Amino acid sequence: MNAPLSRPLVFHRNRERGDGEFATRLAHAVAGDVFFDQASRGRYSTDASIYQIEPVGVLVPKSIDDVRAAIAICREFSVPVLARGAGSSQCGQTVGAALVIDQTKYLNRIVALDRDAMTATVEPGVVLDQLNTSLRPHGLWFPVDVSTSAQATLGGMAGNNSCGSRSIAFGNMVHNVLAVDAILSDGTEARFGPMAEMDTAPPRVRELVGRLRAIGTRERDEIERRVPRVMRRVGGYNIDVFAPQSERPYTTGGGVNLAHLLVGSEGSLAFTRRLALKLCAVPRHRTLGVVNFPTLYKAMDCARHIVRLGPAAVELVDRTMIDLARGNPAFRPVIDAALIGEPEAILLVEFIGETQDDPVRRLGELVALMGDLGLAGSVVQMTDAGAQRALWEVRKAGLNIMMSMKGDGKPVSFIEDCAVPLEHLAEYVDRLTQVFAKYGTRGTWYAHASVGTLHVRPILDMRRDGAAKMRAIAEEASALVREYKGAFSGEHGDGLVRSEWVGWQFGPRLVGAFEEIKDLFDPAGLMNPGKIVRGTRMDDATLFRFRPGHRTLPLATALDWSAWDVHHDPVADTLSAPGTGGDPARGFGKAVEMCNNNGHCRKFDAGTMCPSYRATRDEQHLTRGRANTLRLALSGQLGPNALASEAVRAAFDLCVSCKGCRRECPTGVDMAKMKIEFRHHWQQAHGLSLKDRLVAHLPRWAPWAARVPWLPNLRGTLPGASRIGEALLGFSARRTFPAWRRDTFLRDAGMAGADNAGDADVVLFVDTFSNYFEPENARAAVNVLRAGGYRVHVARASGDDERPGQPLCCGRTYLAAGLVDDAKREARRVVAALAPHVARGAAIVGLEPSCLLSLRDEFLVMGLGEAAQRLADNAFLVEEFLAREHRAGRLLLPLAPLPQTRALLHGHCHQKAFDAMGAVREVLGLVPNLAIDVVESSCCGMAGNFGYDAVHFDVSLRMAELALLPAVRAAAPDTLLVADGTSCRHQIADGTRDTGMREAIHCIRVLERALVAGDPPAPSR
Ligand SMILES: Cc1cc2nc3c(=O)[nH]c(=O)nc-3n(C[C@H](O)[C@H](O)[C@H](O)COP(=O)(O)OP(=O)(O)OC[C@H]3O[C@@H](n4cnc5c(N)ncnc54)[C@H](O)[C@@H]3O)c2cc1C
Ligand code: SF4
Ligand code: SF4
Question: How far is CA 408 from CA 49, 568, 569, 579, 594, in A?
Answer without folding.
Answer: 15, 7, 10, 13, 9
